[in-house]
From TrEMBL:
Domain Protein kinase: 147-445
GO terms of biological process kind: early endosome to late endosome transport; endosome to lysosome transport; negative regulation of monoatomic ion transport; protein targeting to lysosome
Annotated protein name in UniProt: PX domain-containing protein kinase-like protein
Lineage: Eukaryota, Metazoa, Ecdysozoa, Arthropoda, Hexapoda
Low complexity bias: start-end ranges: 618-636
Organism field: Anopheles dirus
Amino acid sequence: MALFEQTETTTKVTLDDTEACCCTIETAQTIDGHTEYVLRVQRGPYPENSWRILRRYNDFASLNKCLQISGIDLSFPGKKLIGNMRPDFIAERLNALQEYINQVLMNPILASSLPTKKFIDPDSYSTPFHDLALQYASMSLRTDGVYTLGQSLGPIGWRLRKHYFKVVHKPQGNKHSPGHSTTKHHLIKSSSQSHGKQHTTQVCVTTSTEKDYNTSTRDHSGRDDLILSWTEFGPDRYIDEKEIHTVLKNFGGVQHPYIVPIEHIASNDSGALVIRKFYKQGSLKDVLCSASPCNPFLSKYGSPKGRAPLPLKDLALYARQILEAIRFLHSKGMACGHVHCGNVIVVDGIAKLMDVENFIFGVPSFYRPFFVQHSKINTCEAIDVYGFGHLLYEMCMGYPLQDSYARQISDCPDSLKSLLESILSKDACKSSLPTLDQLTTHPFFGEYAGHFNDLYATTMTVQKPHLKFSTSAKEQLKLAVQKTENRVREEQRSVKNQKRLVRVQEMMTSEEEKKKIKQKAKHEQKQAKLRAQNSLQLNNGPPATGSGITASVHLSSSTGGIVKSDSANSITSPQEALMSPPPHATDSGGSTSPQPPPSAPPIPGPPSSLPLFPPAVPDLASSASASGKLAKSISGDESTGGGSGNRSALLESICNFNKSGLKKISPTEAGK
């Protein structure tokens, strides 16, 4: 009887849970007396991989309640009972909710949590992952006479498709089949049972741990406590389904002083389980954050209260040990791809790497959103070097690097700063990273871990490393490495093309904005010219309504002024104004009509405008005002002879000017 009976064949699409998502609240709509917000969510760099969902304010509030366990301060808008349907309030709340969801998605810990994933992508993350893991793990251990599945440890890790359970050895008194051994062995399962039952789960995720699993590392029989992890296969699982059981069987016997050994490993078509020893101190990340390993991931690492960097000698020793473990895996044709503080255990001063089987499972790397932004980090070795750089940074600073490269590195010795900059600086990520062999010869390790080579040689004599793959397994691993690197390069090209497209769009937008600004400036210049012309016309008086003869303002001959006309081309001197003949009206035949007799001189009035040049002597102006002032020549209708009459009156005024009213002054007084 097969352990897993396949009852249904379905096409499964494996998502990359590390792929970044962005969310935009497009609009708000009122439905049945409440407000619903339309959210457009995009996964990855391409806009076509997007969808729309409807969310109410209560949905945002439920998400915020689940994320409060992290201790991260988020700006969430408060609830309002009165006036919450006003358009201005809805617009204000929309902006506040947009700012809130941006804060959530920009934080790697919050963005990778199950409540956030369910909120923005309910179709993909409504599957009961925990129930499926419990079912597969139970079925895998049911006929095995060695282990008993215990309680769930809850979401203690960051992966949504990886679940942890307590597991213990079965009592020795149980009956076993003849020849059955209770010693460590590796079971490989080859069939699966589909899970067709779907459940609707709450957005909020809580741990199911009922008692502290940290107080003791031994069960009642005196054996070490064990932990079981069930992991679904990821998008980078390129090993053939028929060969993966052989590869896992070979890998289950790995032995290395700096790699955590595997107690038990088994797999089916959906995923695999691994049993290891449980360490009560937790991972290196738990040590740095002073966190309990069995607490939920959000509460442990969201906002840890205590962070402490490692001493330089311990940092150098642990880093050198992890570096040797990575080199050993690469020497066997296998990459790690998952180097970070959460996958490092420190036992009795020895750092050990664990979860190295994740490469075989094809699950995405923790730092994948970072290194896909740099096209030079495109090999498995470069990815491990990059992860090793982040590991060094967190051990040195006490907190993780939240960006794809380090903008500034300080508060560390020069040798360590040089090592970090060779991996995490912007120039290093853009050019090329050092190799694993080059890292081992860096001066930092010689300065703070100079005795490591002798220590490593002694350790190798006690526990010799062992990892042997069959020929077919080696071919499968080689093919998996190539396909993994190809997918990384393809995703890096997509990210690069999308960034280029965004820059082009920004340039086009800026050019359009520049054109609009230029057009607006031209329009304003035209309006300014029109205003200036209108102001000039108002100051000079309205234009005449006759045959086009313009009105002119003449200065007194005694001041030597000029004649200013409303016409742009009409500027004449007083002599030209006096000597020019008066205009004559002409009939349709071109004959000159007789000029009417001059009319009586008009009574002089005040000038309509000030002279262009003031009089040189004040007394001259006062005496001249008694008999003659500036005259205003107004064009008249040629048909009535008004123009010639005004001209004659002006000439008569000038002729009757009384010179006796002028007062002589000395040159010295004129100079004053």
